[in-house]
């Protein structure tokens, strides 16, 4: 049994695996970290000398990559070799919602996790600690364990068996994109679930290099898995709660910013996560709630499932109602009109567009017959094109020449000859728009729809803009 960890392998070089291992490598120079992925292009991008072109954008990440890469942090496609030499393996692969079959639309598709477990079972040597880092449904560790145990038993019948053994830990990641490096360096808590005390201690010792021991919580494996799901469900619930009230503020003469401030000053409630907006996006919230709903229904807790499902209902409703407001303000039709979209990522400081509200809102606007100029400081054109395209709808399934949206290279490029601009992501460069300049490029009635509550109304009004701001009943 290992007495200290010298070699760590992380399977999955995505938004979780990449930043988590980079921060660990920075804090633990005596350990070698091999981040492996089956995606050849992704690994090439992690190894690029152009640090502005890493596969994911995350403030502070490129500095750490520059410091650790090829010293004690390596990115490669050599999955088998790095599994074999690892004392500890983190599983950070994607866990999307199932598209077909049993539990379609709600349960997590575990095929990537399963294939990882099989690769580990085949190639691991000696004793290996397997740590699940992806957000996983409760009891996934059990599935991983049974795959690993199955192989161990089978191998033990072979004469060349090398007596491989495994212990499994759950160590959920709580980082938020856009602040991942800070979140990893100063976490609120580290959660380690498992039943093998030796393995728990070994993982804990790694975190103790930079995290206060009082913040490291150990639980049984099921509680750890469930806690991650519930933390995300509670956060998403707060957003749906404040978004539902944003609509009430608009219908009355209240202002959601003041209401959120007053409510959040109650120390029992707290001020974070009370910004109303176009709804939550990102790879976790929707997926985790759907998964929670699935699990509740599975255990016959139908009322509990219905309660949590409403968080998603409100999220969709918020996006739909923003589209209706835009159409209504533009005299009931946007057919033939041109609209600028500022921001496509699901939040600021990331190039990630998974579940971004912008996708649903843009698709609905396109369905209404307008054309869109879309600008985002970090999302690439190919990503926007692939997010919007859908072969089931003719208006979304057009060639580059025929499509009714264009990806713009700057704010000014985006607003040219448009009737309206819609702010969808809270990028800081949208906080101080040059209204005087923008106004010259737009066409009357020059509407601004601010779904993130970031623009200064008085300044914008001075230059003759019509303004709608989320949750503001006093315009
Ligand atoms: C989330 C959790 O915060 C993190 O702990 C978990 O590990 C992964 O899921 P992430 O999805 O990266 O992180 O970002 P987060 O900051 O939580 O934002 C999610 C969505 O909620 C974004 O679309 C954001 O714009 C929206 N949001 C957040 C609001 O609309 N209002 C808020 O007040 C906060
Ligand atoms: P997350 O946000 O959870 O990090 P991503 O989709 O950004 O999700 O990253 C997951 C990564 O895991 C992808 O780059 C994918 O290619 C990789 N991956 C999935 N399954 C395997 C596997 N069996 N072996 C190696 N890499 C895998």
Question: How would you explain this protein's 3D organization?
Answer:
This protein has a 6-stranded parallel β-sheet, sandwiched between helices. A 6-stranded parallel β-sheet has the order 11-10-9-12-13-14. The mean pLDDT is 94. It has helices at 17-27, 40-46, 61-68, 79-84, 111-123, 140-157, 180-185, 197-207, 221-251, 256-264, 285-298, 302-329, 357-367, 381-388, 411-415, 435-441, 457-462; strands spanning 7-11, 32-36, 73-76, 88-91, 127-132, 165-170, 190-193, 216-219, 338-342, 371-375, 405-407, 420-423, 447-450, 466-469. The protein has 475 residues and is α/β, with parallel strands linked by helices. β12 (420-423), α16 (435-441) and β13 (447-450) form a beta-alpha-beta unit. α1 crosses α3 (61-68), α5 runs parallel beside α6 and α11 packs antiparallel against α12 (302-329). It is built from 17 helices and 14 strands. The radius of gyration is 24 Å and the shape is globular. It binds uridine-5'-diphosphate-xylopyranose (UDX) and adenosine-5'-diphosphate (ADP). The site of uridine-5'-diphosphate-xylopyranose has 19 residues, from α9.
């Amino acid at each position: 049994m290992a007495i200290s960890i010298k070699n760590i392998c992380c399977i999955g070089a995505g938004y979780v695996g990449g930043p988590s291992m980079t921060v660990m490598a920075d804090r633990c120079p005596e350990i070698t970290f091999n981040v492996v992925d089956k995606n050849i292009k992704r690994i090439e991008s992690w190894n690029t000398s152009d640090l502005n072109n890493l596969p994911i954008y995350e403030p502070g990440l490129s500095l750490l990559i520059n410091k650790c890469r090829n010293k004690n942090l390596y990115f490669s496609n050599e999955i088998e070799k790095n599994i074999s030499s690892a004392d500890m393996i983190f599983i950070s692969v994607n866990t999307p919602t199932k598209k077909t079959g049993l539990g379609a639309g709600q349960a997590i598709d575990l095929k990537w996790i399963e294939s990882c477990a099989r690769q580990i079972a085949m190639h691991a040597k000696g004793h290996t600690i397997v740590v699940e880092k992806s957000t996983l449904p409760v009891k996934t560790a059990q599935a991983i364990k049974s795959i690993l145990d199955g192989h161990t038993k089978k191998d033990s019948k072979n004469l060349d068996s090398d007596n491989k053994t495994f212990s499994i830990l759950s160590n959920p990641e709580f980082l938020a994109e856009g602040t991942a490096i800070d979140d990893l360096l100063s976490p609120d808590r580290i959660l380690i679930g498992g039943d093998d005390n030796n393995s728990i201690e070994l993982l804990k010792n790694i975190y103790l290099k930079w995290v206060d021991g009082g913040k490291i919580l150990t639980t049984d494996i099921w509680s750890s898995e469930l806690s991650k799901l519930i933390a995300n469900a509670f956060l998403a619930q707060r957003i749906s709660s404040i978004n539902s009230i944003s609509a009430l503020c608009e219908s009355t003469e209240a202002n959601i910013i003041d209401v959120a401030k007053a409510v959040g000053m109650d120390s029992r409630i707290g001020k974070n996560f009370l910004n109303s907006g176009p709804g939550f996006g990102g790879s976790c919230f929707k997926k985790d709630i759907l998964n929670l709903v699935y699990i509740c229904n599975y255990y016959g807790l139908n009322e509990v499932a219905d309660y949590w499902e409403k968080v998603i209902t409100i999220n969709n409703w918020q996006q739909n109602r923003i589209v209706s407001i835009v159409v209504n303000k533009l005299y009931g039709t946007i057919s033939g009109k041109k609209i600028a979209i500022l921001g496509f990522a699901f939040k600021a400081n990331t190039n990630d567009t998974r579940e971004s509200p912008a996708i649903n809102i843009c698709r609905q606007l396109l369905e209404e017959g307008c054309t869109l100029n879309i600008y985002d400081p970090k999302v690439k054109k190919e990503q926007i094109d692939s997010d919007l395209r859908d072969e089931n709808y003719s208006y979304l399934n057009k060639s580059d020449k025929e499509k009714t949206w264009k990806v713009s290279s700057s704010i000014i490029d985006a607003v040219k000859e448009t009737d309206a601009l819609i702010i969808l992501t809270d990028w800081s460069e949208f906080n101080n728009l040059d209204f005087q300049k923008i106004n010259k490029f737009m066409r009357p009635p020059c509407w601004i729809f601010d779904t993130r509550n970031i623009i200064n109304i008085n300044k914008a009004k001075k230059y003759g803009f019509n303004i709608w701001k989320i949750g503001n009943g006093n315009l």
